Amino acid sequence: MYNITTDVELTVGSVRHVLSCLPLGDGNAVTWRVRTWKNGTPFPLSGKTVTCQILKGDGTAGEPIAGTVSPDGFAEAVLTEECHEIPGETRLTMRAEGGGEKAALAVLIYRVL
């Protein structure tokens, strides 16, 4: 199991994080962690609901992944098998919602081989 970490400055907007590839069938082995900042200061996500939307290599949408907010303030989601089952470019969009606010935090783009 390994982590992919993305830092997001909220005053700039969502960030695109591009990886070269992830292996086919590597589900539940990767945790995507997104750390948020606002004006250079850590921005708390506690109390927010985190989800990831999947757009698979064949252009179909996958089941949303329920994420969590870790004790150290990262939005996190474990990439499911569905994130690695179709060869081609896959896009994940991590969103946070709560307290009357919602935002796309980051987009993770990678090729499944």
What does it look like?
With 113 residues, this protein is mostly beta strands. It has one domain: Immunoglobulin-like, CATH 2.60.40. The protein is 0% helix and 58% strand. The protein contains no helices and 10 strands. The strands form 2 sheets. Strands 1, 3, 4, 7 and 8 form a 5-stranded mixed β-sheet that branches. Strands 2-10-9-5-6 form a 5-stranded mixed β-sheet, with no helix packed on it. The chain starts with a strand and ends with a strand. The mean pLDDT is 88.
Topology (SSEs and partners):
Blueprint: E1 2-9, E2 15-22, E3 30-38, E4 41-42, E5 49-55, E6 65-66, E7 68-69, E8 75-78, E9 88-98, E10 101-112
Parallel strand pairs: 1-3, 2-10
Antiparallel strand pairs: 3-4, 3-8, 5-6, 5-9, 7-8, 9-10
What is the number of helices? 0
In sequence order, what are the helices and strands, one letter per element? EEEEEEEEEE
Low-confidence stretches: none
- Total domain units: 1
CATH architecture: Sandwich
Shape category: elongated
How far do the termini sit from each other? 18 Å
CATH topology: Immunoglobulin-like
The helical percent reads under 10%
- Give Rg in angstroms: 14 Å
Please identify the top-level CATH class. Mainly Beta
The structural class is mainly beta
Number of strands: 10
Q: Into which percentage range does the β-strand content fall?
A: over 45%
Major sheet size, sense and barrel closure: 5 strands, mixed
Quick check: average pLDDT? Answer: 88
